[in-house]
């Protein structure tokens, strides 16, 4: 056996496996990221939330991606803790079902998917078709990588050293489980880790008594990934992965105790060891969903005890600034504090924009004044953030810290401008309605409400991006900008047509209609600029929309 050649081929196959999983995830995100984000944030009852999480995880082939999305919605207040825990448990089951599907003999499908997906990705005209082709190509490469792993492990299965190595591992199942958890965390993909184990088992390298603690370790390590990635988020975002990890840890510990007591696992469905391990993985997560749906409330209370709100966070009548002057000499902590305050500005914009159409339709002096007070809070927050980051910049910063400071300053500026647009344009329309301006036509108002809903969705995405800089959210914001542009064009065209037809309500409200359209479009453009730094980092943003000169 040529060991270096085997190791090199196995390493190449593993990297291809990880790349293929990433390719599928990015393709699905880009092709239907808006639907993915709305599904995760849909919440609802626990059963429905678990179903949503399962479906999105199957589409993305990643429960970690679902966890990051859910954390963003939890921070913005759109997803309750118990529903969020159900989403994550459903996502774990979804990723297990992905493994089950991929465990079938699909080697014949790989060439078809690679050829079809590659051609679609290279030749399709629409962006969604291009990204769908990328996802199909990723699935084909994933199947190819599994074939490569199987080929690379053939010499290992025939090695005379294998029986003694497996016997050594079988003597310390706890260490095997811990190492599997660490390995899964290092890969940042429980799907990839389980597929590697199953492929080894199919080649006779991993027996059942070693495979069981490996599978339990993978499930434990899968919970560590999201907890690690959300470590810098506000407490609302960190509670979800912590609760999910506790669910996994408790259930893994219970099953490991049974295994250590020599409880039989031969009852697992499947004729071969590989099939039994896959079914154990699926049954583990299915049982966890059933238990979790009952225990989400109790787990939520436990997580709140372990991660309580900081003093002042529970007071809804006052905001305590995160800009701690004692952190000025500690740039990393100071910039994190500034980020929290920029998020507060984003939440203020959300509070201001959400009811503005209702206020325009049925204004009262009290509601107009209340929204103007929020604009004052936005101005104060912007001024404090600007001065605070300027003080931080007087110290010694790394290049990354300097870039982050500029991003936060620009985000605060854009949010302040957005607040000004709402206050000076949209609230001015409300004031004109108070002063007796005419009502809108039914069709015109419906168009304005559709436009407002699209813009408000983008503002919420911007708030999520501040706490979870996921390229998925950034790409969705840019796609939403294009949707808003389409709605603006349609509304303006329809409004002019109504003027041509002499619709009285449209004639009376024409100036207001066009001003609201312009203001909402400007708010959307301002918040969308916050997505550009993330997209530049990932290479997803063109420097110019101009056609290159010949």
Whole-number radius of gyration?
27 Å
Total helical elements: 21
Strand content: under 5%
Order of helices and strands: HHHHHHHHHHHHHHHHHHHHH
Note the overall shape: elongated
Distance between the termini: 57 Å
User: What percentage of residues falls in helices of 4 or more residues?
Assistant: over 70%
The major β-sheet equals:
none
Oligomeric form of this entry?
Answer: single chain
Give the total of domains.
2
Q: Got a strand count?
A: 0
Uncertain regions: pLDDT < 50 for 5+ in a row?
A: 311-317
Brief characterization of the structure:
This protein has 550 residues and is an all-alpha fold. The chain has two domains: 10-306, no CATH class; 327-538, Methane Monooxygenase Hydroxylase, Chain G, domain 1 (Up-down Bundle).
Q: What this model shows, in words?
A:
The chain is elongated and about 90 Å long. The termini are far apart. It folds into two domains: 10-306, no CATH class; 327-538, Methane Monooxygenase Hydroxylase, Chain G, domain 1 (Up-down Bundle). Helix 1 packs across helix 2 (46-60) and helix 9 (190-202) runs antiparallel to helix 12. It has 550 residues and is an all-alpha fold. The chain has 21 helices and no strands.
